[in-house]
Amino acid sequence: MSDNADTPVSLKILLVDDEVNITKSLRRLLGQVDIYEVLIGNSGDEGLALIRENEDIGVIISDQRMPQMTGVEFLGKARKLVPDAIRILLTGYADIEASIAAINQGAVFRYLSKPWQDDELLATIAEAVEHYQLVSENKRLNALVSKQNAELQDWNSRLKQRVLDQTSQIRAKSESLAEKNQQLRSSFGETIEALSGLVGMRNRVDPSHSRNTAELVAAMAKAMDLSADEVRNYRSAALLHDIGKIGMADGLLSKTVDQLNHEELVEYQRHVVRGQTAIDPVLELRDLGPLIRHHHENYDGSGFPDGLAKEDIPLGARLIAVANSFEHRLHRFAEADARTEALKAMKQEWGSRLDPLLKKVLSAAAGEIFGQLEFSAEVVKRMVAPNEIAVGMQLLQDLHSGTGVLLLKRGTVFDVAGIDSIKRCFMIDPFDAKIAVLVERTED
Ligand SMILES: [Fe+2]
User: Fold this and answer.
1) Ligand 1 mean position to 14 CA, how many Å?
2) What is the distance in angstroms between the CA of the first residue and the CA of the last residue of the chain?
3) Mean pLDDT throughout 41-51?
4) What are residue 64's phi and psi, to 5 degrees?
């Protein structure tokens, strides 16, 4: 230990003996070692008092034979005060047995007999000092390790808490962001529906054309396993595909394409570019622009406005073209087996106007959305006045108020509440007197 950097500068050694000669000669002897700082007590009580003042005493050497308190008694008491100090008993031959007993009881580290050999005594004390320093160093290191462990644990638990806090903050923020996004998305969806409603109000022939087209486009996109984003975008574009017609003159809107003269046709064809221009300032709608612009392109390149062909026409625009064509025909054939007739009537368009690869998905989607209105041997069509509507009748066409507000969707089966609301609407905003419905055939 002497060359250890941690060795203390000095080490306190306490000598206790009632014989002054002995303590003097021991002090002289121990004075040879630089690091020893020698304290002297002439009785057990003095020794204990010195210990109380110097708790860093490393080695205690005590004579056995002293008045009032023996060395073993004194060292026993010293042990209680400074348990780590190394205790050495100085004893004459007559007391050797008592000394050995004291060593065995653990009260004394070693004994030295009087008279002593200087070398032997110095070696024993050096050994005791080394022992004391080892124990002290060990204690110091243990304490250091425990302290560092405690700090590490504390740091770890604070780190863990911080990570937990930050995780929960991030989670809360992301939840509130998701909620806001959802609100934004749903209010955005409502805005698109409202815009589409405006388009519907301008279309006196079929106010629910855009809505029906959009449902069909969404069903086709789903049948093609497109992503949820694509389905949503294509549906929105279909809802707004004719938004460019809002500014068109009433006279033009009430005619079919075949009835238009050249100037009117040019004006009519502008609705696709106008539609794209109208929504372009709205960043969130901008991606829908090309789908609106190209919904009248033909698969063979003969359409407008840009004469695009085949896959150059965006898929969403091709889907809108297909649904658009089907929905117009469905309206025309509403009095019979509408779906089958509409599909039949489109036969010439596949490959010329429409993408032939979309034929199958149209059949599937049309069956899904309009399939419930198939005629059968048990069901027949009737034209009824509002006050004739009965529970169980099914609407054969979308029902609009006199001013063009959609009241009920095609396919709706009337219940008591539905009949009441239709009668109320008829009072406020009367519509064409007769309503086409499906009813169960009765034997008459
Ligand atoms: Fe159009």
Assistant:
1) 111
2) 122
3) 95
4) -80, -45
CA dihedral for 15, 19, 20, 21, sign (positive or negative):
negative
In a domain, 188, yes or no: no
**Residue 319 within any structural domain of the chain:** yes
Is residue 370 located within the same domain as residue 407? Answer: no
Q: Is residue 63 part of a domain?
A: yes
Residue found by looking up tokens 């010195």 in the block = 50
Cα(294) to ligand 1 centroid in Å equals 9
- Residue 183 CA to ligand 1 centre (angstroms): 30
pLDDT at 162 over 70: yes
Task: Provide the residue count of the chain.
Answer: 444
Of 327, 356, 374, the residue at which a domain comes to its end is 374
Does residue 200 lie within any of the structural domains? no
For residues 116 and 104, state if they share a domain.
yes
Cβ count near 126 (within 10 Å): 15
- The model carries a pTM of 0.55
CB 280 within 8 A of CB 286: yes
- 436/386 Cα distance (integer angstroms): 10
Q: How far is the CA of 431 from the centre of ligand 1 (A)?
A: 26
Query: CATH number, domain at 359?
Result: 1.10.3210.10
Residue 219's domain spans which residues? 206-241+289-374
Q: How many angstroms does the Cα of residue 295 sit away from the middle of ligand 1?
A: 7
Q: How far is the CA of 224 from the centre of ligand 1 (A)?
A: 23
Cα of 300 from ligand 1 centre, angstroms? 18
**Domain end marker among 92, 112, 141:** 141
For 195-234, write each residue's pLDDT tens digit: 887 787 777 666 778 888 998 999 999 999 999 999 999 9
Q: How far is the CA of 436 from the centre of ligand 1 (A)?
A: 27
Pairwise CA distance, residues 16 & 59, whole Å: 11
Residue 240 Cα to ligand 1 middle (Å): 10
Instruction: Please determine, for residue 376, whether its predicted confidence score (pLDDT) is greater than 70.
Output: no
Whether residues 211 and 65 share a domain: the answer is: no
CA of 225 to the centre of ligand 1 (A): 26
Can you spell out the DSSP letters for 300-351?
A: TS--SSS---GGGS-HHHHHHHHHHHHHHHHHHTTTSSHHHHHHHHTGGGBT
pLDDT at 105 over 60: yes
DSSP per position, 275-289: HHHHHTTSGGGGGGH
